[in-house]
Design goal:
The complex is a heterodimer of chains A (404) and B (178). By secondary structure, chain A is an all-alpha fold. Helix content of chain A is 73%, strand content 0%. Chain A has helices at 16-38, 43-73, 84-109, 132-137, 143-174, 178-205, 218-243, 252-283, 286-298, 300-318, 321-325, 327-353, 362-383, 396-400. The radius of gyration of chain A is 22 Å and the shape is globular. Chain A starts with 15 loop residues before the first helix and ends with a helix. By secondary structure, chain B is an alpha+beta fold. Chain B is 47% helix and 11% strand. Chain B contains 5 helices and 4 strands, in the order βαβαααβαβ. A 4-stranded antiparallel β-sheet of chain B has the order 2-3-1-4. In chain B, α3 (54-80) runs antiparallel to α4. The longest helix of chain B has 28 residues, at 93-120. The chains are: A mainly alpha (404), B alpha+beta (178). Chains A and B meet through α8 of A and α4 of B.
């Protein structure tokens, strides 16, 4: 034991190709959003895409904070040497939150998003637009309360994300167990809050696009999607860093653990997805089947592609132990899962906004590229600010000698 | 020729045990098996134990369960006795999936419990195979086959040198068969 010889002050340098490419991606994103707004007929579709990617961005970052909290509460040793990657994601959460709230606010203001429950006259019995169902839900679904929930939830997540990163920085400087015990305590509080509020956050941000329809599974379905996509993002970042010559202490047992996480939570995602689908299919009640009716009529290809990419691909490719330990296979599957969850969000959001006028073109691809560039740029900048290993983490030795 | 069947080196510490394994391997003494009260990281690689085929068994048990469930539901509700349930077709695949899923897990779990009992000789009615009772308590045991390795005194010496607290010469393989 203790035969390793790593440089604990190693720091990521964010320069060169990664930086140029991410800036190019951001420019492509801005250009395609600009193209979307140049044509009045495309406004709603552009807004739906912005919401999709901003939601994806925020979910990946907040699940990074969730990963940190889970590791602290479980007192997990294996992950101690890779914690800087989810920390960088957590540090970016405030930026993602500002973007998401700005897009939601603009969408509400211009009636391009959430117009199903946010339109004049919906709650006025005398108005021809009166909608009894929306009126019944208006105590919950009204603009001030909706925005307040968004701000409070995302603000609380950001607060804890920054707090956990800050405690880790203090640990680097001061050593000792103080930061670790504090992280444990705050992680416990954060997990309780996160567990109860993410379903409501998903109900608000995505499910309320089709405000007549509801599903109690929807919150957990979204939670599974954001958690597995965040794990896949972490795997991609770690593997690419390793290929670039950083983080040489990450061995294939660490990759095995990440692979198990991705494998397990892909199955969990399918389980929740199927639980939602199955009950609606079996009960066959019109107010619930309308959701899948739209997806079967206009989105059949995406509907099945979603299952292939998020269930079949990870299950078949990651079932074997050797595949989970293989850098390139894990990288490939992680990228499939990440694209798969874009498809997942796509067929959650599009039928409720643009209905049958959906498309897959410059706006979709460009917005996605732009947000990937933004994510890469912000996360890698955050990563380059501190050493790549938390050198005073009490369980670091266990992580460096991790073996499965 | 003596009646000694197995030489057991009994260690009080896992690091001494690992050291003992190295010593014996350096001197070309083949190790029959090692018994420890807790799992030790890296010991399989050191002893050159082949990877478990448990996952292969699990897969085949599971796929048997999936197919049994499918056959059961298909034969009962599609072939033998069609029922109109909520106006759905008799062959409604989504309805099959929960049962197929459950039987997959059930068959897999039962198969693996059975495999565990069979491979460890813990099946009800069988005597457990124990070479040294303290291997389940506080000692780490290296067992060396005495018939295959002739120089008994040299093995004793190697084990003692590596920190063995006690070296036993057993005339029977399993002391639990009493």
């Amino acid at each position: 034991m203790g035969t390793h010889n790593y440089n604990f002050t190693e720091q990521f340098e964010f320069t060169g190709k990664a930086k140029t490419l991410s800036i190019v991606a951001i420019v492509i994103g801005l250009a395609s959003i600009g193209y979307g707004f140049s044509d009045h007929g495309l406004h709603e579709r552009t807004f739906a895409n912005l919401l999709l990617m901003a939601y994806y961005f925020a979910c990946v970052c907040m699940s990074g904070a969730f990963f940190l909290a889970v590791q602290f509460v479980a007192q997990a040793g294996w992950s101690a040497s890779i914690l800087r990657v989810p920390q960088a994601m957590a540090k970016v959460l405030p930026i993602a939150v500002v973007i998401l709230i700005a897009i939601i606010g603009a969408g509400l203001y211009t009636h391009n998003l959430y117009h199903h429950w946010n339109a004049p006259g919906l709650t006025d019995p005398a108005d021809p637009n009166y909608d009894k169902l929306i009126d019944g839900k208006s105590a919950f679904l009204n603009v001030p309360f909706f925005l307040a929930r968004q701000v409070i939830f995302l603000g609380v997540y950001s607060f804890f994300a920054l707090l956990l990163s800050k405690l880790s920085t203090n640990e680097d400087l001061e050593g000792g167990l103080t930061s670790y015990t504090k992280s444990f305590k705050y992680s416990c509080i954060f997990l309780v809050i996160y567990g109860f509020t993410t379903p409501i956050f998903a109900f608000d941000t995505v499910m309320s696009l089709e405000a007549h329809w509801f599903s109690t599974m929807f919150g957990w379905y979204n939670f599974a999607a954001m958690w597995v996509s965040s794990l896949a993002t972490m795997a991609v970042i770690i593997i690419l860093l390793r290929k670039a010559g950083y983080m040489q202490w990450v061995n294939n047992s660490h990759l095995h653990n990440l692979g198990q996480f991705i494998f397990g939570f892909s199955i969990f995602w399918t389980y929740v997805w199927f639980a939602q689908f199955m009950l609606i299919y079996y009960a066959n009640m019109p107010e619930e089947t309308v959701y899948f009716y739209k997806r079967f009529e206009f989105y059949k290809f995406w509907f099945y592609l979603n299952l292939v990419m998020n269930f079949l691909a990870p299950v078949l490719l990651l079932m074997d132990r050797d595949n989970k330990r293989h850098e390139n296979i894990l990288l490939g599957v992680s990228i499939i899962v990440l694209c798969g969850h874009w498809v997942d969000y796509y067929q959650m959001i599009m039928p409720g906004t643009v209905e049958e006028h959906n498309g897959f073109g410059i706006i979709e691809i460009g917005t996605a590229i732009g947000f990937v560039g933004l994510f890469t740029f912000t996360v890698l900048s955050a990563l380059s600010k501190s050493p790549l290993i938390a050198k005073n983490h009490p369980l670091l030795e266990e992580s460096l000698n991790h073996q499965l | 020729m003596s009646n000694i069947k197995y030489i057991l080196g009994s260690f009080g510490d896992p690091d001494d045990l690992m050291h003992g394994i190295e010593k014996l391997q350096e001197n070309n003494v083949s190790i029959y098996d090692v018994y420890t009260p807790m799992p030790i990281h890296g010991i399989e690689a050191k002893l050159g134990i082949k990877r478990s085929r448990l996952d292969v068994l699990a897969f085949f048990c599971a796929i048997t369960g999936t197919m049994s469930a499918f056959a059961l539901i298909y034969l009962t509700s599609v072939v033998d006795w069609r029922n109109n349930i909520g106006g759905k077709p008799a062959f409604a695949l989504p309805d099959f999936i929960p049962i197929m899923f459950e039987l997959t897990i059930l068959f897999c779990a039962f198969g693996l419990v059975g495999a565990y009992y069979a491979s460890t000789h813990l099946f009800p009615g069988r005597s457990p195979r124990v070479m040294d009772l303290r291997a389940t308590n506080d000692r780490f045991i290296i067992a060396v086959d005495a018939k295959q390795n002739a120089e008994h005194s040299k093995i004793d010496g190697l084990l003692k040198e590596a920190g063995a607290i006690e070296v036993k010469h057993n005339e029977r393989k399993y002391i639990s068969y009493e």
